[in-house]
Structures are given as C-alpha cells and as structure tokens.
Specification:
With 334 residues, the chain is α+β, with helices and mostly antiparallel strands. It folds into two domains: 113 residues, 2-Layer Sandwich (Phosphorylase Kinase, domain 1), CATH 3.30.200; 205 residues, Aminoglycoside 3'-phosphotransferase, Chain: A, domain 2 (Alpha-Beta Complex), CATH 3.90.1200. The chain contains twelve helices and ten strands. The strands form three sheets. The protein has a five-stranded antiparallel beta sheet with strand order 1-2-3-5-4, with helices on both faces. A three-stranded antiparallel beta sheet has the order 6-8-9. A two-stranded antiparallel sheet has the order 7-10. Strand 8 and strand 9 form a beta hairpin. Helix 4 packs antiparallel against helix 8 and helix 4 packs parallel to helix 9. It is globular, with a radius of gyration of 21 Å. The termini are far apart. It is an enzyme of class 2 (transferase). GO terms for molecular function: ATP binding; hygromycin-B 7''-O-phosphotransferase activity; protein kinase activity.
C-alpha cells in the first residue's frame, strides 16, 4: 500500500503526481469515498492533466429517478500546489451559483487526505475539443469561439465582491513577471534570436499594459481557455460545445485581454475568422489592430504558466520565426 508523504519536496510531489498508478492511489480514493458516502463500483485514472485525476462511477440507488450510474471526477493536488487548488476551489464554489451560458462542473466535496488536497466535482458530458479539433470545419470552430466569447463576457461580469479571494496585486504581478521573464524563457530554451530581442520587446511595449495597471476593478479570468479544457459532443453530425473545465489557473485581475490570449493562440491557430468570432461573442468594442496584438503578446510573455516553445511548435508557421513583430500577427490573427 502506497503512503502519501504529508510534506513532500517539490520534486517528490511531481514524481508522485506523474508516476503513481491507480493501485497506488486507491487507498486515498477509498478514504474519499468513505468520507463522502460514494459507493464507487468502478475507478479509473485520467492521464491527460498535470495533476492526478480520476473518474469514480457510483451505482444508482433504488430511489433515483434517473437509473443511470453517476460519475464523479476527483482531482488530487499535492500540498505544494495549494494556490492551484485554491483557484479551482474558489472558482467552482462561486460558479455553482451562476449560469454562464456554458456548463462548468459542480463542486460536490473538497478536503484533504494526508495533507494532499482533493476536489470531487461533476463529470460533464462530452470529450475534449483537442481530441477532435482537426475534424472540425472553420465554421464549426467559429461557432464554438462565438459561444466561448459569450461565456468569457459573462464570467468577467461576475460581481467583484465574490472574487476577492482570487484577486492579484496586478501592478506587482506585472513587475515581478517582467523582472524574471528573460531568465524564465531562457531556462525553457527559447530560441536565441527571440531571446536576444526579448528584453527590448518588453521595454518597447510596456505602454500596452499601462491602462490597466492602476485600475481597482477586477474580472474573474479562467486564463486557460484552450481546446484541452473545452468539451464538445457530436449531435446531428456536428460537434456542439458542452462544457469548460480546469479552473486551476484562474485569477482575478483588471485586464480582460488576459483571457483572449489562449483562444487566439490555440483555438484560432492562425485563422482570423475564429478569433474574430471569439471577440464578437465577447462583445469586444476596442480596436482590432496591431496594438491589441502587442497587448496580447505582452501578456503571453509575462503569464505565470506555459512555455513559449509549445506555442512556437503548435501555432502554424511559427516554428522558425525569428522576431516578435512577425509573431504578433501569427499568434493573434486579426
């Protein structure tokens, strides 16, 4: 029987999260099931995410009107990742009380086992958009982008007093991320031509962030609206948008453009019609020009998660690009 360490080092936490199999996790899952009265008749492990994720299937009871078995998703996070846990917990707890046009998981239970944190949430209907993205036409992706933009609009309009626990000190965040951006991207192996231009690019475009630095309002930002976190289901021969998952990197800040970067990069994938559809769904009234592209590039470079090399490899025609100006239009197609 595997025993979770209560205070693991970062490396040990990552090793356990990455390499433990279902048999190793079963004592933890059994504890969660007993604690919350879940009569699991089947357990499976999902290897798609960065944290351990499991599906528990519970047999329907005699009194259930719906006789289908019920499924839960269990996410387990090491104590080292408390910030990520807190983001998802607070976001889902809040969103349980709001309708945003697209389903997000209901939060059922939460707690810890041996100091390791867990969330028990609803299993939404559908499959990850990333698994079928290449099968979709531009029109189908535009339809999803339009709905996603509308979701983002409603998310950003949630009352400020309800998102206080997720609020960043935005000026401090931008300053800190700027200070460490070069070393972070160098460590990630950013190509030399781009690395050489990086500090100059950042210095040239700090003005793009200035309008939001001293604003006191804040919006709840998912930050990770890419196809791996969007669910779809085939209906009448077409894939329909059914849900949004993974609020582990959610935060509250005054700059709503932070939300636009992931759909532009990884849903549009170089196709302007798709990104325009997202902006239309959002009701974005600002100029759609080079200034917006530079704004999004700055936020992408300064974001707290992600690897720029991944974007260079996955956004079309970016793999061999050697300057940031050329990347602006390819990353953020308008």
């Amino acid at each position: 029987m595997s025993k979770l360490p209560r205070d693991p080092s970062y490396n040990l936490a990552c090793d356990i999260s990455d390499n433990w199999g279902l048999d190793d996790w079963r004592p933890t899952l059994d504890t969660i099931c007993i604690r919350h009265g879940i009569n699991a008749i089947h357990m499976s492990q999902n290897f798609e995410g960065t944290n351990p994720v499991f599906e528990l299937t519970q047999a329907s009871s005699a009194g259930d009107l719906d006789k289908a078995n019920r499924s839960f998703i269990v996410k387990v996070l090491a104590p080292n990742f408390h910030v990520q846990y807190q983001s998802e917990y607070l976001s889902l707890k809040l969103l349980n009380h709001h309708r945003l046009g697209v389903k997000v998981p209901k939060l059922f239970y939460f707690g810890d086992v041996d100091n390791w944190l867990y969330l028990v949430i609803e299993k939404l209907d559908g499959i990850m958009l990333s698994s079928v993205l290449t099968e979709l036409s531009v029109k189908e992706r535009c339809d999803i982008a339009l709905e996603l933009g509308n979701f983002s609009k409603h998310l950003h309009r949630l009352p400020e007093q309800q998102i206080e626990g997720l609020r960043l000190d935005w000026p401090d965040f931008i300053r800190l991320q700027t200070d460490k951006c070069y070393e972070k991207r160098k460590k990630q192996g950013l190509p030399d031509p781009l690395l050489r231009e990086l500090n100059g690019y950042l210095a040239s475009h700090t003005d793009k962030l200035a309008a939001y630095l001293n604003k006191s309002d804040a919006h709840l930002i998912h930050t990770d609206l890419h196809p791996g976190n969007l669910l779809v289901k085939k209906h009448d021969g077409r894939y329909r948008f059914t849900g949004i998952i993974d609020f582990g990197d959610a935060l509250a800040c005054p700059d709503p453009v932070f939300e636009f970067t992931s759909p532009a990069l990884l849903l549009a994938l170089g196709e302007p019609k798709i990104f325009h559809a997202y902006l239309d769904g959002y009701g974005y009234g600002g100029k759609r020009d080079t200034s917006l592209q530079q704004h999004m590039m700055m936020l992408s470079l300064l974001r707290h998660t992600g690897d720029m090399n991944y974007l260079l490899q996955h956004v079309p025609d970016c793999r061999d690009e050697k300057n940031w100006q050329a990347l602006e239009a390819k990353f953020f197609p308008l």
